[in-house]
């Protein structure tokens, strides 16, 4: 089952949740409507970032084991303050491990 949510500040969240037990499987945060040039694994493989042709951050995919702090790390590495705010968004935070974990 997939659910989608539009969030202010031009972020687009997409969640994938197991339909049998309701367990969080993955989430995708889309920051830009650009074509993805390459995908890079970050945070011991718990997340993947999509980069555009010029290296700009297009989106972030987080797996069920992901911790909230990975968003803050990616935001800092790519100078994306909007993404840092997403780590504390209630719709997303309920699926992620605590930011301080």
**How much beta, percentage-wise?**
35-45%
Query: What's the SSE pattern?
Result: EEEEEEHHH
Strand order in space, largest sheet: 1-2-3-6-5-4
Distance between the termini: 27 Å
What are the main properties of this structure?
101 residues, alpha+beta, six-stranded antiparallel β-sheet, 3 helices, disordered N terminus
What's the gist of this structure?
With 101 residues, this protein is an alpha+beta fold. The protein has helices at 69-77, 81-86, 90-93, and strands at 2-7, 11-17, 24-30, 38-42, 47-51, 57-63.
Descriptive report:
Helix content is 19%, strand content 37%. By secondary structure, it is α+β, with helices and mostly antiparallel strands. The protein is globular.
Write the layout of secondary structure elements.
Layout: E1 2-7, E2 11-17, E3 24-30, E4 38-42, E5 47-51, E6 57-63, H1 69-77, H2 81-86, H3 90-93
Antiparallel strand pairs: 1-2, 2-3, 3-6, 4-5, 5-6
């Amino acid at each position: 089952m997939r659910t989608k949510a539009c969030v202010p500040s031009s972020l687009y969240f997409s969640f994938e949740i197991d339909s049998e037990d309701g367990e969080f499987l993955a989430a995708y945060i889309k920051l830009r409507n650009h074509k993805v040039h390459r995908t890079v694994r970050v945070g011991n493989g718990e997340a993947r970032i999509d980069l555009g042709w010029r290296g700009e951050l297009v989106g972030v995919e987080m797996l069920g084991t992901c911790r909230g702090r990975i968003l803050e790390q990616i935001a800092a590495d790519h100078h994306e303050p909007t993404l840092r705010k997403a780590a504390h968004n209630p719709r997303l935070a309920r699926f992620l491990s605590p930011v301080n974990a």
